Amino acid sequence: MRIGELARRTGVPVPTIKYYSREGLLPPGERTSPNQVAYDDSHVRRLKLIRAMLEVGGLSVAAARDVLAEVDSPTRSVHGMLGVAQSAVTRAAVERGTDEDRERAEAEVRELVTRHGWTAKPQNPGWQSLVQIVLTYRDLDRGDLLTLLDKYASAAGELALAELGALADVPSADGKVEGVVLGTVLGDAAMSALRRIAQEDASGRARG
Amino acid sequence: MRIGELARRTGVPVPTIKYYSREGLLPPGERTSPNQVAYDDSHVRRLKLIRAMLEVGGLSVAAARDVLAEVDSPTRSVHGMLGVAQSAVTRAAVERGTDEDRERAEAEVRELVTRHGWTAKPQNPGWQSLVQIVLTYRDLDRGDLLTLLDKYASAAGELALAELGALADVPSADGKVEGVVLGTVLGDAAMSALRRIAQEDASGRARG
Q1: What number is the ipTM of this complex?
Q2: What is the pLDDT of residues A103-112, one digit of tens each?
Q3: Which one of A73, B31, B34, B75 is at 20 to 30 Å from B126 when CA atoms are compared?
Q4: Where is the HTH merR-type domain (chains A, B) (predicted)?
Q5: Partners of residue A178 in chain B, C-beta under 8 Å
């Protein structure tokens, strides 16, 4: 199909398609004459995936490029894809607090991870985010909110197993890799959205 | 204390403190002479809260201003605070899909909410995010990932009750309101961080 048809089928305007192409998010189409390039269904799907990452997941173009490079890598794996996708969706943690405060927060996170029997390491993109959150709660003397982290952790553990189970049922390697990307990029957004609905309900009931 | 001492105690540079003041995030100090303004412990705490919202929660200055206006409102309530904080942390959903696709996704979200016995309405900031996520999964033919939403919803429901319970134990009204702000702004980040750690663990074990 020509670029106009690609735009029509995906709802992505032609100039935006050209921009994604230049930025390396969309593989080039096949040049069929000096003035014409042909696209196929793989380009339709890729454009949908790009929109999901940018518009729904809120990723930057650079972060989406990193994720897609791994999707297209001949040496990709589900576990490696997870690491790349996690890094892409994680905001860099701002260094704060004294060395002593940081060490204390690091120790709290290490203890929490151990308590839940997890083998993850401080290099995990979530780890430093969590240290920063613990530091913030401690800085504001809100140890009461820290006690909730164990409940979040138990829920996260159960959900991770469910997510992995869903992935195991996907027959194709492409489908598994895309599932990791979508689960990581949209999974956070889905969980946050559902938390807002559940919180409104719980708060409304408590108010009576 | 003077502004230099306020900067030292909070780690926020003087020009940044002045900027937050101009933007209406930090209440003015008390003018004690034509050239001097005195700040107190309430300014220290407010600055810590501002940093938590901007640096850890990733809120814009405008969104943080909305949240703090409600914190300082004489007519504030815990339930109202929750609504304002939820709106502040929610990215606006981009309209997409045909009317038919949108109606179908709206219906799926309504059914999910009903299934979990929730009373929340489509005005909830999470609702439209969820419609967009359902649309995206459908657009990509990933109904398999949609089945995970019920598991996320069950976890979100349990966590909302735990969060409300933690809030009930906070004695002061100020503490409750600040707890809602922190729980909303940092709660998403904490859950996402823990999901990354749990996912790495589950994926690593599956790989063997």
Answers
A1: 0.92
A2: 999 999 999 9
A3: B75
A4: 1-70
A5: 140, 142
